């Protein structure tokens, strides 16, 4: 069980936590369920990035006080990719690790007792959850995708990756996945912390297989819908989707092209704030008003600084989903404000 203090109701909250393994056609998934699925309420589903597991990827965010105000109203289901959980046994020689598409195919077996999910994925985990939403649209009610790269590696990237694998260690390659060259030099404390976690917490053989699976991913081939136009052959995410990218993340170009490396660790407050607003935009207004005071203040700043804020693009009159909103998480000293766009989605507008 987990115990935390509810500052709004001034009482201790006890939450039941269950850990278990689920056998699927593509292998075993380690699952951690926090709370109990609540009637027609969706479950928050998380999927971590390479070199991490659900604890090292999401504990900072979910232990943050503002985020606990969210999890009071939703059960949370954490997924560990095969062989990446704490104390995972090393895979035997010759084990064939699931491809990224197969990792997505494993999830419906875990979600058989869940009405629907709101996914929060980082990096490789964001790719898996996006693939799940494409395959099982009715199961996914919303997505929060952090540092996602929906594209396969091109020939140049593939050649560079091969060369890097010959000249650099597995850990160095994974660090390059998480951090830009600039951040590797500037944020030495968090870089060193992550490096130690990668070396000590996950069997290196298992980690190498997960990394190789991600490196060999195929394009998600998502089409951006044109406002006012629809088509049965359109391949797109049909749920509200929030894209999040760290300002110094190596994924910034991939995220921003169509619409810090670890924003969920470095800036849990800003990300929790974005998630609250996003859920409100989806219609979950039962979040406690007292816990939304920072958002209200941000909205006030948004109104007083309207002349400095970029305008949201209209949604169009068709039934196709609106363009995906993007949150760009900046360093703490940067100024930012929030506003609700006409789609009811969350957009972070930047004030420079």
From TrEMBL:
Record protein name field: Uncharacterized protein
Family to which this protein belongs: Belongs to the NDRG family.
